[in-house]
Automatic annotation (TrEMBL):
SMART domains: REC (SM00448). May play the central regulatory role in sporulation. It may be an element of the effector pathway responsible for the activation of sporulation genes in response to nutritional stress. Spo0A may act in concert with spo0H (a sigma factor) to control the expression of some genes that are critical to the sporulation process. The modification 4-aspartylphosphate is found at residue 55. Residues 5-120 form the Response regulatory domain. Gene3D superfamilies: 3.40.50.2300, CheC-like. CDD domains: CheX. Keywords: Chemotaxis, Phosphoprotein. It comes from Tepidibacter thalassicus DSM 15285. This is Stage 0 sporulation protein A homolog. InterPro entries: CheC-like_sf, CheX-like_dom, CheY-like_superfamily, Sig_transdc_resp-reg_receiver, ST_Response_Regulator. One of its GO terms (biological process) is phosphorelay signal transduction system.
Amino acid sequence: MKKAKVVIVDDSPFSIAIIRDILIEKGFDVVGEAGSLEETIRVVEEKKPDLVTMDMTIPGTDGLECTRAVHSINPNIKVIVISSMMDDEIIKEAKKNKVSGYIQKPIDPENLITEIERVMAGEELFEELNEIYPKVFKEAFYDNMNRFTKTIPCFNDEVKENKGLSSRGISVVVGIIGKYLGRMIFDLSYETAQNMAKSILKRDVKDIHETLAMVEEFANIVAGNACSMINRRNKVYGLRVAPPTVFHGKSLNISKTELETISLVIQTDFGEMYLNVGFKRGDNEWM
């Protein structure tokens, strides 16, 4: 990833010096500085930066008005707020004004560089994710099936698809947020789920609720482990899983999605299982 051209907007010369030194040490090109709305407009028009770091407290204005001015010049310029203030209302307003990231002072150099890399990461990072995630999710599924049941699953060939499918009976949907938004679906029949739960519990399953709880937790662990493995490869991804949602019943359908997904049919000692995972380009979840 190329190093971005950066303009620093802050009314404190001390804060500007700290940010400038961090960025220069990491190879970024600091092309300008500003301490007011007028200076911000002038420097951005003149220097044409890729990124602006923005303080929220600017004499006679604020960081959000300066952000709007930056985007009126070029809506593709990324803005990262660096401020001593940070609360839910400020973050909400920052997002409404198309701020790409938010860091609270005092500045941690590693956090600042990671945030800039996350914000500036382009198509190549998404292509990297597309290349690695099928293998990573397969590895997470394989490892956890072996840990929980001491059995070895067998994967059929990966299929890239985006179409509606009929559920086998139980579907767990796990949302994924971070640099890119994604989703994992784990699908299996009631009988397969009961067989697996019985193996893990080493006793008969009490009721359907216990079976569903097992399927939900297994899917959550697979997705969480996979996201952690991807984050270790590149922390810019910042992937996190949302609480799983379980659907079950007859005539249950898995709807088509906007995501670019891969599907796997998995043969296990307990029956056939299905895994569908995908991510999409677009705005990311940055807080």
